[in-house]
């Protein structure tokens, strides 16, 4: 599935972040592990506080999305949530922070800071990549112009 991609750039825990539906997300089992709570408890709190988790904060994966992610996890050696009988939640950066708030534990707060830093580092890496690509395009354009002038002489 094209809309489900692993994202990893060396940032802390970035290998737990995927792109699903064009959004960078972390799965409920990975987030629960980071926050030091059972996945069942995390999902229970999400269901009890649904008004805090609009679709741009958290959503349940479709069967096809989950199958695609599981196949990637199998090839990468990850085991996140493989034996769950329910489709997992996917949390965006904002959803991961909201989850820390509803869990309200010291560990959740500490880890949420690291989660934010990971998302920020990924955003910065993407911006740097775009800037580098733009500079390369400019350099190529300049070189082509110079070569065209040289050939016409």
Description of the molecule:
The chain is of the alpha+beta class. It has one domain (4-116): Mlu1-box Binding Protein, DNA-binding Domain, CATH 3.10.260. Helices cover 59% and strands 12% of the residues. The chain has 5 helices and 5 strands. The chain has helices at residues 28-35, 39-48, 63-76, 93-103, 106-152, and strands at residues 4-7, 17-20, 23-27, 58-60, 89-91. It has a 5-stranded antiparallel β-sheet with strand order 1-2-3-5-4. α4 runs antiparallel to α5. It is elongated.
SSE arrangement:
Elements: E1 4-7, E2 17-20, E3 23-27, H1 28-35, H2 39-48, E4 58-60, H3 63-76, E5 89-91, H4 93-103, H5 106-152
Antiparallel strand pairs: 1-2, 2-3, 3-5, 4-5
Compact summary:
The chain is of the alpha+beta class and 153 residues long. 59% of the residues lie in helices and 12% in strands.
Characteristics:
5 helices, 5 strands, disordered N terminus, alpha+beta, single chain, Mlu1-box Binding Protein, DNA-binding Domain, 153 residues
List the secondary-structure elements in sequence, H or E. Answer: EEEHHEHEHH
Radius of gyration, in angstroms, nearest whole number: 20 Å
- Could you tell me the strand content as a percent range? 5-15%
Approximate helicity band: 55-70%
Specify the CATH architecture: Roll
Terminal-residue CA separation: 52 Å
The CATH class name reads: Alpha Beta
Query: How many domains is the backbone divided into?
Result: 1
Please give the largest β-sheet: 5 strands, antiparallel
Helical run tally: 5
Indicate the mean pLDDT: 81
Structural class: alpha+beta
> The CATH topology is what?
Mlu1-box Binding Protein, DNA-binding Domain
Describe the strand arrangement of the main beta sheet, using strand numbers. Answer: 1-2-3-5-4
User: Could you name the ranges where pLDDT drops below 50 across 5 or more consecutive residues?
Assistant: 1-13
Shape: elongated
Overall number of strands: 5
């Amino acid at each position: 599935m094209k809309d489900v991609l692993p994202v990893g750039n060396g940032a802390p825990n970035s290998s737990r972040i995927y792109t699903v539906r064009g959004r960078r997300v972390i799965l409920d089992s990975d987030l629960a592990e980071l926050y030091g709570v059972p996945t069942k408890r995390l999902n229970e709190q999400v269901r009890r506080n649904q008004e805090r988790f609009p679709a741009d904060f958290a959503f349940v994966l479709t069967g096809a999305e989950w199958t695609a992610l599981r196949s990637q996890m199998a090839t990468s050696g990850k085991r996140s949530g493989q034996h769950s009988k329910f489709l997992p939640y996917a949390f965006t950066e904002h959803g991961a922070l909201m989850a820390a708030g509803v869990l309200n534990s010291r560990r959740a707060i500490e880890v949420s800071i690291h989660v934010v830093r990971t998302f920020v580092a990924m955003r910065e890496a993407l911006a740097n990549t775009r800037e580098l690509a733009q500079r390369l395009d400019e350099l190529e354009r300049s070189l082509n112009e110079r070569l065209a002038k040289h050939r016409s002489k």
